[in-house]
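PROTOCOL LOG
Step 1. Enter all chains and additional molecules of the complex.
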Amino acid sequence: MARQSNLMVALGVLSALGLVASTFWDAPQINNWLFRVSTLIMLATSWNLMANAGLVSLGHSAFWGVGSYAAILSANAWSGSVLGTLVVALLAGALMGLIVAAVTGGLKGIFFAISTLALSEGLRISALMLPDVTSGAVGLFLRQDLRPSQHTLYLVAALAAVASVGVAILISCSKLQFASRAMRDNEAAAQMLGIAPRRQRMIIVAISSAMASAAGAINAWYGGYLDPEVAFTLHNTILAQIAPILGGIHTLAGPVIGSFAIIALSEGTRIWFGNMEGVSQMTFGLVLVVCILFLPRGIEGVMHRRKKRQATAGAASPALATGRGGKS
Amino acid sequence: MTTMLAVRDLHAGYDESSVLQGLNFELKKGEVVCLLGANGAGKTTTMAVLSGLVDASSGSVTYDGQDLLAMPSHRRVEAGLSLSPEGRKVFPNLTVEENLVLGSFNSKARAGRAARLEEVYTLFPRLAERRVQSAGLMSGGEQQMLALGRAIMAKPRLLLLDEPSLGLAPMIVQAVFEAIRKIAATDITIFLVEQNTHAALSIASRGYVMSAGRIVHAGSAAELRQSPEVRDAFIGGKSARTIREARHA
Amino acid sequence: MHYIPQLIVDALLLGGIYTLMVIGLALSFGVTRVINFAHGEAVMIGAYGAYTIALVSGIDPLLALPLLMVIGCLFGMALFKVSIEPVLKAPHVNQILLTFGIGLVLQNAAVMIWKADERSVVTPYAYSSFQFGEVFVAGGRLIGFGVALVLVAALFFWLRRTEFGRATRALDEQRDAAVLVGINVKRMYALAFGLSVALGVATGVILSFIGAISPFMGFHILVKGFAIIVLGGLGSIVGAVLGAFLLAFAETAVSYYVPNGTGWAEAVAFAVLFLVLVLRPRGIIGQAVAD
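Step 2. Run joint prediction.
Step 3. Record the structure below.
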């Protein structure tokens, strides 16, 4: 077991280094893919953090969109740098998360899902109806003189993705992990154990929201243009949940594996079907349905099972802890 | 007399804790039998397994020659097995009459529904007075009568009654047991779970005593009234300790 | 300033359609305790069904309505058996994501079949209008309202007066006791789900002739539906009716009295949703919701 987890750590560090190093490589198409993988890793890890605490978000595009607007608006207003506006986006995201957690207070899973779904729609409409701030449907361009080189953005995205996974690892080693797990299993029990769900919940939602916000901010710098449809597109909400589900929900590696798989999948459908409308979203929907019905623990779960089978075949006492399955 | 229900080495529980640990007993056609035991002995779980609310993990139950555990709940009701559950569980926002009519939802009981409704109203005139009232607004005793009436509406051959006296005033207990006596006088077999030993033994011909998921004693009503095991099961000496140990195991 | 009776009439007509839009959602949640995030897509498919039939054969949407509802019901029952029944005991996250995924599949199937642009069915009554005193009523809306009213009344009659309707209410109230009286729970779940889809389809048929339809319409309908249901109290069918009319009045009032109101009216649902969640999560007709 120990050797195996050392191997995992080594693999993780290597792929993190690889991701960062690849940004110095001059291959625009591959850089573009890895950029998308990086921001998706952030988004998916963020979603998974909430899911770990039993909070199903159907509005991650809200957090992403807030970060996007925070970055572009603050950049244009104060001639901010990428890193400076990233801080603004993180703060805006965290604030947003705190508000959401406070408003949804003691709400159970379904209500939380519904409120986040409504939040993203509400923000989209507000952005559309407040052109004085957001330029509304006309859209908002990043000032040309501020644009950094593409390579800077690749590097920032890769580092931010590594940092996000790092945050998730830190949380998994902290008391927050136990609190999350208890909240997911049973909020009432969590309360009895002396964990104050409300406070833990606010911390987790704030961290998760800030993370998604940062991803939105980096992506906004990359794209250089925003309008309400772009910023709050349902597409991001879908990506945010589908990557962890496909990779393996409630695990650290799941969102990362899932992000690579999803970007590969969407490139694949693009190559096979061209730009035929609806195909890639349709694929995502199918992946979601098939995963929930047949692979509730995703790719990570399949790998885990195979490893377990090997261990069972090789070792005398296969005393592996069985992970919690999707069904209970 | 022929055997109505035969329970053999029945095991069942919730999640990881097992409640029934090898239960064995039998009911003959037309009998009134009670099941006694302290809180947590597994009486209600027994009823839940028989009615299909809880799945058995092993063992067998033969009902009227059929494998009961293989039948889904609604088939069991069709086959004439009807439970009046602990805590009554009436449909609170439905009227008294709707509750009763729902009792005969199963396809075998729909014919003759009107006549049986009249029988229930004769048995419990109180229900007839309140037929259009919401069931949730009635007193505990009235709800108990309703739960009993609803169970009878299913046209049962084996009637399971789980704690019909729970939380009721002594006067009401008397009325409820009087009704059960009348039901027993028809050819319906009755299996009764009770903590009120005195009331239960007043109508049952024999009984079982349950502790920690097993039958620990059986005998006629007269024997059980004298039995130290019956007292034991309620005062919570030895048997209560066994339960605790079983739970920690 | 605007004329108050006109506002009331407009809000009532809208409320009737909203009622039909959410009553299926409330029904399936009340019985199965699974929130169907694909309900908006049922509405959308209904709308495209009516559109296609009108396009191909020239049959009026109202005539196609019964057939489409039957197909919707059967489709809903089959969908329930195949996909939702297996996750009934799974954690909420699975149920939510599953129905969300089904919605996504249906939405994009529609994009692929009918393309993403907006359509509508032109009927003789769609653009007619009546005048009562100083109140104008659009013909299409009036007919849509009438159909919605009939269907909602039929649902209430079914729930009150029929064997399966009573069983549905029983299941909604006391699941264990419903099992004990011999109700085949899984079959009732499938039936309730099928009916809920049929009601959604009917809403779509109405929307096909009173406004523009698009494959993405389902999402907005879903969010509005949630606002209404949360407003009325999750799981309460009567609450859903109340919530539908309240939202309709609030939206109509905003579009009348707020500058740029038509755009902002779309945001009323979210404002309502958030306010209710903060102030009274149980909704107007409070019913505790178990997780």
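Step 4. Note key features.
Strands of chain B lie at 3-14, 17-28, 32-37, 56-63, 66-67, 81-84, 158-162, 189-194, 206-211, 214-220.
Confidence is low (pLDDT under 50) at residues 235-249 of chain B.
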